[in-house]
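Researcher: I'd like a structural prediction for the single chain below. Treat it as a standalone chain; there are no partners to consider.
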Amino acid sequence: MKNITLGKTGITSLQNGFSTLPLQGEDLETSVTMLRKAHDGGMTFFDTARSYANSEVKIGIAFDGIRDEVTIASKTMADTPGKFKADLEATLRNLRTDHIDIYQFHFMTQCYRPGDCTGMYEAMEQAKKEGKIRALDTGTGAGFYAFMLAELGCEVTAIDYSDDMIAEAKKNAEENHRATVFGYYVPDPERFGVVAFDENGKVTSI
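Model: Treating it as a single chain, here is the predicted structure.
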């Protein structure tokens, strides 16, 4: 596996990552063992979400004491600043950390903008200023919102890692110089990985 930088975030990680979605059905001991074995095998990027049952707790236990050796991404489905803050604080407690490397809006239904009266954009910016989030992100299969958020300043946008979405991502990046897109695709291990674009919108790694 090769090391890559995720867009303009400055965050580096191995190309392959570990999605904890499947761990929802595993017991705590098995899950922690799997996470630690993945790390021992060289994996450094771990993805979770508030909606993935207790997967955040499992990550927190597995990497307690070695937090600086892993990159962690989590997600929130919050649609108000109050819910956003509550979810963020709960995630930090679960993960046993003072910061999340990449924090994503999960299955968002609108594009949050500065001054749009929702307070959501300001909430995520404040969390970043406080050092609780390193990079802002959208976690969605809807490329429309992902690219809009990228234009507004989100450093990373997570998309479904399929041929259609990669084609759309590449087209948008090359035409609009949005250079911060990566994606997951879990069902086929041979295609599980990261797509990153440089500042000129050119694909740098898949």
